[in-house]
Amino acid sequence: MKGRLAALICPECRGLAVRKPPRSLTAYATHEPLPVEYTHADGKPLCLTGGPSGHRRATPILSRSH
Questions:
Q1: How many Cβ atoms are within 10 Å of 13's Cβ, its own excluded?
Q2: How many CB atoms lie under 10 A from the CB of residue 59?
Q3: Beta partners for 28?
Q4: Average model confidence (pLDDT) across the chain
Q5: By CB neighbour count within 10 A (0-12 exposed, 13-18 middle, 19+ buried), where does 60 fall?
Q6: Largest CB tally within 10 Å, which of 1, 28, 29, 57?
Q7: What residues in the chain have per-residue pLDDT under 50?
């Protein structure tokens, strides 16, 4: 059996991520520049992740498990 195609996922919740604008910008009250390019497949913002410069939206990663 051949491997599945790679999919973009949110590294925090492991949900599918897509390159499309969010349904609402009000959910993006974080320390990040706009525009935000990636969202969950349902249009909701990617999960927050903490770091030394504050909270930011997670950056999607490739996964072969979807």
A1: 12
A2: 13
A3: none
A4: 80
A5: buried
A6: 57
A7: 1, 27
Write down the pLDDT at residue 64: 72
List Cβ<8 Å contacts ≥24 apart for 44-49: 46/10, 46/12, 46/17, 47/10, 47/12, 47/13, 48/12, 49/11, 49/12
3-state secondary structure the chain: CCCCCCEEECCCCCCEEEECCCCCCCCCCCCCCCCCCEEECCCCECCEECCCCCCEECCCEEECCC
Locate 54 and state its tokens. Answer: 């504050």
Distance of alpha carbon 29 from alpha carbon 57, whole angstroms: 10
Confirm if 21 and 36 have CB atoms less than 8 A apart: yes
Q: What is the pLDDT of residue 33?
A: 62
